[in-house]
Amino acid sequence: MLRYVLSFFAALAIMPIAGIGIADNKGDPPAIVWEKNLEDAIAKAKTTGKSILLDFFVPT
Amino acid sequence: MGTVTYPDSAVINYISKNFITLQINVQTNAEIAGIYRVFWTPTILVLDSNVTEYYRFNGFLPPDEFIPQLEFGLGMMALEKQDYKTASIQLKSVVDKYTRSDIAPEAQYWFGVSEYKSAHNVEALLNAWRKLKKDYPNSIWAKKVSFVK
């Protein structure tokens, strides 16, 4: 029983720290957003002023 | 790349801030692969919005080498476009932030070139190349400037 009580309080103590971690990653995209085709990539590059990263690959 | 480098949070952040990204399967897009003379994968290209190629590299790279390569590519694009201010910032950033990366010696070489071209400052060029000789004595880029005293 004591173990469960201690676990509960430990979880309470950790939650704010975990919350800060989540807040820090708030603006980060979860993954790279790949455009569907070259035309879309060019259009977005022109709009945003960014360069294009083109990755030629073979599915594995 | 898809299982190690692209899921890395630093890679995601860097790419998201600096690039529009596109993956092309060479097996189903042979025409585009042919236009860019791709004969091996992965092949990574850095293009401007006119799809002009400015930098490429082949083969898998882990995140700690992949990001410097991309930043170097942006620096070389700026250098070729004669935007020397941007080129110097990008290339110096590669050397300063990724000092131990394999691309750092080459970045230091071209940083000197960018500094020279921006103001025809010979001393800036020589200082950059002296630093290259001192910091990366075993690189081929140090050999390219070995004549510098």
Structure description:
The complex is a heterodimer of chains A (60) and B (149). With 60 residues, chain A is α+β, with helices and mostly antiparallel strands. Chain A has one domain. Chain A has two helices and two strands. Chain A is flat and about 35 Å long. About 17% of the residues of chain A have low confidence. Chain B has 149 residues and is α+β, with helices and mostly antiparallel strands. Chain B has a two-stranded antiparallel sheet. In chain B, helix 1 packs parallel to helix 3, helix 3 packs antiparallel against helix 4 and helix 4 packs antiparallel against helix 5. The longest helix of chain B has 18 residues. The termini of chain B are far apart. The mean pLDDT of chain B is 97. Strand 2 of chain A pairs antiparallel with strand 2 of chain B, so a sheet runs across the interface.
The biggest sheet of chain B, with number of strands, parallel, antiparallel or mixed sense and barrel status, is: 2 strands, antiparallel
Mean residue pLDDT of chain A: 74
Oligomer: heterodimer
Rg calc of chain B: 16 Å
Uncertain stretches of 5 or more adjacent residues of chain A: 14-23
Helix content of chain B: 55-70%
End-to-end separation of chain A: 51 Å
Rg of chain A, Cα atoms, Å: 22 Å
Give the tally of structural domains of chain A.
Answer: 1
Strand content of chain B: 5-15%
The count of helical stretches of chain A stands at 2
CATH topology of chain B: Serine Threonine Protein Phosphatase 5, Tetratricopeptide repeat
Structural class of chain A: alpha+beta
Strand content bin of chain A: 15-25%
Give the helix proportion of chain A (percent range): 55-70%
* Global geometry of chain B: globular
Query: Strand order, biggest sheet of chain B?
Result: 2-3
